[in-house]
Amino acid sequence: MDEISFRISNHLERLQVQTSLVIQQGQQWISMFLTNCQRYIRELYRDQHVQHIKDIIYNLITYIQKCLEQLRFQYYSIHINSVQFYRQLVTIFNNEVTRREIIFCLAGITIGTLIGYSIGRNWIYYSHHMHHIKAVICHHYIGIEGVSMIDDAEMPMIKKNNDLLIQVKAASVNVVDTKICSGYSKAYRRLLNSGRHKEIPVILGRDCSGIVIDIGQSVINFDIGDEVFLAVPSWAPGTMAEYIVVPETLVIKRPKRCTYEIAASIPYSGCMAWDALVNKSVIKEGNAKGQRVLIYGGNTPVGCILIQLVKLWGGYVVTVSRQNAVPVMRALGADEISLFNI
């Protein structure tokens, strides 16, 4: 066993020395290449003669070809040495090896694999944190004048075991977003997000659809690659960003017949419509048939869903809407439409 370890360590040291030499030479070549590129570019900008420009380009191409040839030679040299090393390694193991030695070898490979996997997982989180994303934010509570789009928002990270990291494909605008720009829920936001998120700026958007790209350790209902849609409360970070992290309890899988855009328009308004109709009123699925239901503001997102629910349950819908929304109200099934002007 000592002889095997000695030979393996000897070959590994040789391979390590060769690799370090190639890396050093590669760094030198890259540094020289960048220096020459800068020099050629400076000459290109200073000289206006066409022939001289052609000479500079030709010299640059020639230099690149030489660098590639040198790198290719070093690659094949390392490749040949590696093949020879593995052949010698096979020759060594053709000799008698005890069961105990094999177990120790497999244990070392397993432990190394687990350590590498752990490092890789941590590096994924670190790399996510280092990147920035685009987002639509409210930077001051002064109404819609405080809305802007930025490209340096912090990349969200999974911090809890039941969190999902979702790549947003579509997000919708709700009336509550305009209220948030004027300070709506800022007290809840200050209290509930203390120590986790800044109160300002606020990412807007309350619902979205997208694809799950990472999951927490205790997530059981979703896998990476699932297409989902969701809604978040008014005090939570919004959905108008390239990525969002939310608990799995706020997420459901997207129906195949719904596009990302359609799915993104349903969750927040749908939850409000369901809560108003089922939890707050006396209209239920079992007793709505034949009842006259007045829906004020039928042209709003919540109103559109309310009309469809009442009609689905057999009710008679009377709605108040704008003139330009009358065709939509009729298409949704409204029985009577009254107009109002603002």
Automatic annotation (TrEMBL):
N-terminal signal peptide: none
GO annotation, cellular component aspect: mitochondrion
Name of the protein described by the UniProt record: Enoyl reductase (ER) domain-containing protein
Domain Enoyl reductase (ER): 143-342
SUPFAM superfamilies: GroES-like (SSF50129), NAD(P)-binding Rossmann-fold domains (SSF51735)
Domain of life of the organism encoding this protein: Eukaryota
Upper classification of the organism: Eukaryota, Metazoa, Ecdysozoa, Arthropoda, Hexapoda
SMART domains: PKS_ER
One Gene Ontology MF term: oxidoreductase activity
